[in-house]
């Protein structure tokens, strides 16, 4: 796996918004940034971790609650969480011996915006 740093989507955008895939061709830089974020999501374990964090009541979850949900070692779970954090999808805070993770909705909102048809009605809330 590549050790290159993942870029948080949209940090350098002057207007804070990215074009959608259906509204205009992506420039090379935007495509590269998007690819890195999607690559971070391209693993079933990371998708499950992100969903567990995002859906947690109170908005955050302790790593001690994430690890038992998988048949993987703690270092492997930590590696997946690190990749999600580098992609700007989650953030963390150490409290004593435990680390707590929370979703960074700005990044997921930007991803949703990139995948949405211009002028399409918003999806109904679940």
Automatic annotation (TrEMBL):
SMART domains membership: HTH_ARSR
GO molecular function, one term: DNA-binding transcription factor activity
Gene3D superfamilies: Winged helix-like DNA-binding domain superfamily/Winged helix DNA-binding domain
Top-level taxon in the UniProt lineage: Bacteria
Alphabetically ordered keywords of this record: DNA-binding, Transcription, Transcription regulation
Coiled coil: none
Domain HTH arsR-type: 26-123
Leader peptide range in chain numbering: none
InterPro entries recorded: ArsR-like_HTH, ArsR_HTH, HTH_ArsR_DNA-bd_dom, HTH_MetalResp_TranReg, WH-like_DNA-bd_sf, WH_DNA-bd_sf
NCBIfam families: HTH_metalloreg (NF033788)
Annotated protein name in UniProt: Helix-turn-helix transcriptional regulator
Lineage of source species: Bacteria, Bacillati, Actinomycetota, Actinomycetes, Kitasatosporales
């Amino acid at each position: 796996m590549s050790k290159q740093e993942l870029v948080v989507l949209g940090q350098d955008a002057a207007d804070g918004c990215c074009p959608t895939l259906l509204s205009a061709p992506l420039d090379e830089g935007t495509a590269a940034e998007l690819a890195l974020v999607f690559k971070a999501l391209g693993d079933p374990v990371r998708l499950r971790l992100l969903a567990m964090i995002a859906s947690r009541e109170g908005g955050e979850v302790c790593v001690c609650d994430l690890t038992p949900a998988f048949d993987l070692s703690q270092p492997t779970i930590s590696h997946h969480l690190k990749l999600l954090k580098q992609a700007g999808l989650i953030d963390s805070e150490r409290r004593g011996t435990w680390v707590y993770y929370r979703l960074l909705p700005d990044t997921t909102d930007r991803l949703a915006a990139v995948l949405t048809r211009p002028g399409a009605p918003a999806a109904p809330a679940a």
